[in-house]
Amino acid sequence: MILTVTPNPSLDRTYEIPALDRGAVLRATADRVDPGGKGVNVSRAVAAAGHRTLAVLPVGGPAGAALAGLLGAEGIEVAGVPVAGQTRSNISVAEPDGTLTKINATGPELTPEESEALLTTVGERSAGADWIACCGSLPRGLAPEWYAELVARAHRAGARIALDTSGPSLTAALRERPDVVKPNAEELGQAVGRPLSTIGDAVRAAEELRARGARAVLASLGADGQLLVDADGAHFGSARVAAVRSNVGAGDASLAGFLTAGGTGVRALAAAVAHGAAAVQLPGSLMPTPADLEPAAVAITGEVPLDRPLTEPVP
């Protein structure tokens, strides 16, 4: 069972349009509303893969109720923590060439009591969880050290933690030795404070995060593939993708694949790559099912192409 924690969830509406023309009246060719937030998406991907998951999240107002209802319709158990503020709503605009424009709302400000209620709920509901996945940005009211406190409590209870966040929240949590952290290339460069131009740069940055406390680093490098750097060294994975339709939630699908495949080693990396590749070929933030996966399209190697330039270098 995978328990997910999403401190700042959302309702995500995605519009598909022929082209984004500022100032014009645009007609969508398709639209959909999905539960949103990184941890929520991990739960959705875990459920789509046929595994049990429990989503812990703050729930506020009609949007929060709608979010919980959508998750329930996908067969996901929700441990909602009532909050006074309104759950946020986000908008994504997807173009045929894969370009995605996102407008993310700020979300509610949580009180100290609501913050502690989230931590307490995770502790109460984590019995029997194989992994706790803590994902996404922190809402207003939660200090950057909030994830660090969650990791410390979870480790004291004997749980394994996967952490997908960035900035000061990631930096603060490293001292508590999360079992795996999952930055993308931009977040990885931000964490080490230097540009990343090659896959070798990304490997060295991941090794630095391990030196600072992370036990393993699963790094998403966009179209270039994914890296796993752990005590056994570095491995690189990539997959053939026919066409990118939407990259919303692709990194979350990758983390779900990694965790449901055990959360360690080359087999888990292959599952992460397969799930991420499948997700980008689906509309909106739809999560892949086993039928969407193409394991034969995945290549994993311990011979990491260190000198290969990143398609999108991190400045």
From TrEMBL:
GO terms for biological process: carbohydrate catabolic process; small molecule metabolic process. GO terms for cellular component: cytosol. Residues 23-290 form the Carbohydrate kinase PfkB domain. SUPFAM superfamilies: Ribokinase-like (SSF53613). Keywords: ATP-binding, Kinase, Nucleotide-binding, Transferase. The keyword ATP-binding applies. GO terms for molecular function: 1-phosphofructokinase activity; ATP binding. Pfam families: PfkB. The keyword Nucleotide-binding applies. CDD domains: FruK_PfkB_like. Its EC number is 2.7.1.56. Belongs to the carbohydrate kinase PfkB family. NCBIfam families: 1-PFK (TIGR03168), pfkB (TIGR03828). This is 1-phosphofructokinase.
